[in-house]
Amino acid sequence: GGGDVKRGGGDVISPHQGTGDHVTQGGDDVIQGQDDVIQGQDDVIRGTGKYCDVLHLPEGYQIDWEEGLKRDSRLVYYCVPVPGRNSWTRARADNQSERSEKQSAPNVVELSRKRAAPDDTMDTSEDPVKKSREDSSDNKDSSDNKEAGEVTSKFQGLNMVLPTDTGMCCVALIYSSDPSPFKINDILELTGIVERIDPASCDEGMEEEEAARFPPSSLVPRLHCVKVRVCQNINPLLHSMSLQDQQGLLAEAEQVREELVSLIRGFVLGDPLAAEYLLLHLLSQVYARRDDVMALGKFTVNLTKCPPKRSEFVVCLSQMMSSLCETSFTLPLTISNFNTSVMIPKKDYSANRLVSGLLQLPKGIQIILDETVLEPGQLQPNGIENLKSLGNLISWQRLSYDFGFSYNIEFECDARVLIVGEGKSLLPSDVVLPLQQRVQSPDYPALLSTLTHLDKFRSYLTLVRQISYEEVEGQLQEKIEKDFVAERKEHPKEVTGDTLHRLLVIARLYGISRGHVTLQLQDWESAKSLERDRAARLAAHAHSEVFC
After folding, report:
1. Quick one: which of 330, 294, 287, 315 has its CA closest to 467?
2. Rounded distance, CA 20 to CA 234, Å?
3. How confident is the model over 174-197, as pLDDT tens digits?
4. pLDDT in tens, 89-136
């Protein structure tokens, strides 16, 4: 996507620094004057076209296009605020103290078009996907009877990824000889010079082409980048921690782990096993790909037997996730959302731009899929495609972008997906765990009041994910092989190669949660114990359903 940035007028030029911009489009190479010869009547001066789109020449001077002209190149990227970014990361980035930090509603796609303010009450009475289409109807050049997700050539909004996202977008102009220094969905920290293009200085053809690709510069400034850095995480707490403090937190990992499991237990109705699995889920990420296909490290959890949609269970669980994770959002899986949402990005060839979809997400985002709101209904073709895209995202951590003409391109993802519902999901998952409610009448307001002073947990989650973990070898590897062979002999039908893979993933995550840099025997034994408890619970629920 993207395209050439044409020459236009510039007025205000000032230093600017932005943290955490999400790349949604990559641009083409643009030839840029680096060292221009400017010739007057009596003398010659040299100037540069770098970091601007227009050379402001002294009166009576003009560019000599033939002599001594040096050329360079730059790349054009369209960047939006990080999708699903939670308010506590913004507050800390703005140097606000924890005491002044207020709880904000989680990013729930169906609740509102706009991210709720801290004191807002969430309104679940209207369909947000429908509302988001209504809000952008003024920008569309199409009738209401067109198919859901159809892309028009007119610019539609600011091309944000999630309806709940807010903030400023920018067109990043990056001066680099590397043809592709950044990938789509990278999170960038940009430092540069802002330029707002004066439409009066553009000729008509240039103005139309610029408007087709990008919004006007009054809404989306052009940022001539002086420095660009790819962000591995956007946790401001970790950025301000010294190496000594980080090492101290890792030394206390086991204690912090127990405290965090205790906090999570309250939000899963007192279920200790569910709390353990949710912690492992929060620490999961793709650390490698086998044969460039199988994503190693992903850990999707499907919580079943959850309270129905009338309860506040999912809202409180989402609030906890948004309070702990840098980025997250909740997607209610209603039939309407399936049928009307645009989940995969689609290329608009008329404007030569990529139109964002709900699943065009940054690395490490936490997704909560709420199936408690799912009711009987019929999926339309768009709904079937969305269901397929979600399944591929979960199973392979890949998403196909629609480039039209039956031509799709797959992009790699790294998203943590938690599925909550009353029954087993139609979507794939790595583990299915029936929730065992220990608290019969949960006090949800009291639970939400516990979401304070979470800095230690936030830093812990980000820090332990970055542990450089070594592969298992030696005697422990032999022990694992013997345990697996023995288990397969005892349960030949139930135990497969997938069982071993799942156990190794759980053992790895369990070890990381305790600050270990390699697998230890206790981690392996704990993983087997967790899986035995989960298998027993699944068998008990299956038995009870047979005799219901």
Report:
1. 287
2. 7
3. 988 777 788 889 999 999 999 876
4. 987 666 544 444 445 567 776 533 333 333 333 333 344 333 333 443
Q: Phi/psi of residue 112, each to 5°?
A: -160, 155
Q: How many CA atoms lie within 13 A of 100 on its CB side?
A: 7
* H-helix or E-strand spanning residue 19: strand 9-39
Measured between alpha carbons, how far is residue 394 from residues 296, 369, 412, 504 in Å? Answer: 12, 11, 11, 19
Q: What are phi and psi of 270, to 5 degrees?
A: 80, 10
pLDDT digits (tens, 9 = 90+) for 217-226: 778 888 999 9
* pTM of structure: 0.82
CA dist., res. 528 & res. 533, Å (int):
9
Q: How far apart are CA 525 and CA 518, in angstroms?
A: 14
User: What is residue 227's three-state secondary structure?
Assistant: strand
Give residue 322's identity as a one-letter amino acid code. S
In Å, what is the CA distance from 389 to each residue of 220, 301, 415, 427? 30, 18, 13, 10
CB 326 within 8 A of CB 234: yes
The angle at the Cα of 530, spanning 527 to 536, to the nearest 5 degrees, equals 140
Beta-carbon contacts of residue 337 (< 8 Å; ≥ 6 apart) = 109, 110, 129, 331
**Sign of the CA dihedral running 302, 307, 310, 312:** negative
Number of helices (H), then strands (E), belonging to the chain: the values are: 15, 18
pLDDT digits 0-9 by tens, 275-326: 999 999 999 999 999 887 899 999 999 999 999 877 799 999 999 999 999 9
Burial 271-285 (b: 16+ CB within 10 A, else e): bebbbbbbbbbbbbb
